[in-house]
Prior knowledge:
The complex is a heterodimer of chains A (323) and B (440).
Chain A: H1 2-24, H2 27-39, E1 48-52, E2 58-62, E3 89-94, H3 103-111, E4 122-126, E5 135-139, H4 148-152, E6 158-160, E7 166-168, H5 178-182, E8 189-190, H6 198-208, E9 226-227, H7 233-237, H8 243-247, E10 253-257, E11 262-264, E12 269-271, H9 272-278, E13 294-297, H10 306-309
Parallel strand pairs in A: 3-13
Antiparallel strand pairs in A: 1-2, 3-10, 4-5, 6-7, 8-9, 10-11, 11-12
Chain B: H1 2-13, H2 20-46, H3 61-72, H4 75-85, H5 92-115, H6 125-128, H7 135-155, H8 159-168, H9 174-183, H10 191-224, H11 236-263, H12 271-302, H13 305-315, H14 320-339, H15 346-372, H16 393-416, H17 422-439
Helix pairs in contact in B: 1-17, 2-16, 3-5, 3-11, 3-15, 4-5, 4-10, 4-11, 5-7, 5-11, 5-16, 7-10, 8-9, 10-11, 11-12, 11-15, 12-14, 13-14, 14-15
Amino acid sequence: MGNINKNSRRKFIEKGLKLGLVTAVSGFGISKIVSKTIAKTSIPPSNKIELMTTDGTLIQVDSSEVVEMNHSKKLDDYNVREGMPDRKFVMVIDLAKCKNALKCQKACNKHHYITGDHAWLKVYKMQEDVDTAPYWMPTTCMHCDHPACVTVCPVDATFKRRDGLVLIDNERCIGCRFCMAACPYSTRVFNWSEPNQGEISMLMEMEHQTHNTAEFAGLPSVKGTVDKCDFCPHAIKQNELPHCVTACPNGVFYFGDKYEDTVTNGSESLRLSKLLKDKDGYRLMESLGTKPSVYYLPPVDRLVDFEEGLEHYTDFRSVDKPE
Amino acid sequence: MIMKYSDKLIKDLAPQKFGKLGVIWTWTLIVISVIGIIAYIDQVIKGQVVTNMNDYALWGIYISNFVFFVATSFVGSVTVAVLRLTNNSWRTPIVRIAEIISVAAIIMAGITIMIDMGRPDRLLSLFIHGRMQSPIIWDVIIIPTYIIISLLLLYFPLLPDLAILKKHFKEKQPTLSKWYGKLSLNWTGSAAQKRIQLKSIHVLIILIIPAGFILQTIDAWLFSTLFRVGWDSTNMGAYFISGASVAGVGALVAVIYVIRKAYKLENYITDFHFDKLGKFLVLTCLIYLYFNINEYLIPEFTSKKEEITHINVLVSGEYAPLFWFVIIGGLMIPIIVLLFKKGRKPLPMFLMGVLVVVGSWWKRYLIVTPTLLHPFLPIQGVPESWHHYFPSLHEWLITSATLAMCLLIITILIRYLPIIPIQKTADEQEILDNNKNTIS
């Protein structure tokens, strides 16, 4: 009696161990096996299949005991505050190509319904020194890996996601503007009055119930809260490029994933590391330690004439107002 | 003999009804406050578009005014606590006024910072979602703490006086007497009560010094934790503490002069006290001058490009008139005048006190505004008006209202509290009289 008990207990432990090993198998492997088992449903039950555990040992389990694990995150249920798993979005801006066509800014203003006086995306007329050549420098939010704005936010309204995006929860923002003071890139804008986004914002609210669905993080704008470039999570989710990237006629903007080491401007895809190395890529105000996700390629071997851009340059306007 | 003497003392020091001038003064403050409240309601409805702040000058006089209030509230720590711990007995007639100013200023600081919020309706978020890494949360913690310590430090020493006033007003104003009685917590003056009271005050005195230092330092860190040129300075904490001493003692001098005149307290607050306070003020001014030299001269010496741009705007650019007014008017002139014995007479002291306070207010404006108008990237693609900042009518009305409310709190407290500690004065006079007796 005692022996049987002992045996069955041992069996139970063994079985449990095996099961435990099985569950420890990575999600990727599991999904493959599941498809395998489904394909082999005609094979009589009590059929054993072989599995490899994470430490490399082969084990046999009854195929009927194999179930799909639930830990593989699907894109659909991703949390707006956490972002997409295993992604790290970056941008590369090639200053050699920019001639201040401002199509990026127009597209950005349009798709984000910007109604204030300060565009999220700006193209600066830059000149480092009197004896260096002037150039055009588009700036977006740098989506820093050490974001000064996130550090100082008292209520966690602006947050850093694991996919690299820095976004704003404008349902929580108290409007203290500390983040604006903290940002060395002056990228943040404030809704000083009720943003006049009209029907668009109503439409957005109806379509998306809450403001903070992944696609429309921070949209529509809310009076008394801070806004900024969001790297277009609504486009990323559809596997599309941010609006500034697609709108640029000169291929200035490259967008991509640092983990995949690839960036694209829509017409050409490049290795990020190679591109940065070959063209001496740099980041703005690197010395501040903010670790931006936006890289710049210096304006050398220019493909465009600086002068051409002057015709679009306006000192005091970055958002076109409806007449 | 002593009995009769203390009767006169109580009569002199008990709160009195305001005269015509006092009533006009109070109503003026109320009217300014109400106008400000109306302007604020308008701001809440329309948004902060009614201010002249913009995405570059993202903070304006609401913040500099807040910093001024915080600085002024330091007077409680610096005079009451420090003078008490150092056994400077000349403090007796001025400590209560200092505590009243301290309480009024720190309460208004708490209110002023809310005026700057874009979403005051989400105030509770600070408690629900607060994160310790943000300097604003440090402020949210220290300001209420300082308010409580300051209130208690005003209240505990009042207990014996409230008991005296209860008796004093028993026949003349029974309702008032009843209130004093309730507030005096059945003070009888027994040895046990005195022991507890002394012990409590001592604890508060020890507490308010670090609390005051923390408060001023956090205020400085609101700026120095950011990258901006002009704020990114390791000097800031000490700079703010010394600046706060100047603002606080300056305000104290000015208020004492007015109260002395209005309540005819020349026998209690004498030239001797002004002389001592003058020396105190000049000391704080000299320390502040030292930190100013650190703050402006060293960056000038190393001449980093951004620093030089910033300092030139102050020294010779757009803000030069204001900058030199603050340095010369708010610091140099008071130092020179107060170094002379004649400069420490009541009237010149009053003028210097006012000058120091006005200078201190504008000093905060100079700390906040010019830095914001010189960001790292150039200001481009925004309306021309965004290159500058000067407060709008709304901002002036609201800010004036906060200043008026601060004075109103001081006025109301002065109306109902004995501004010079009665019991303590009586005790001290007795000691003096006894000494005289023994000497003669």
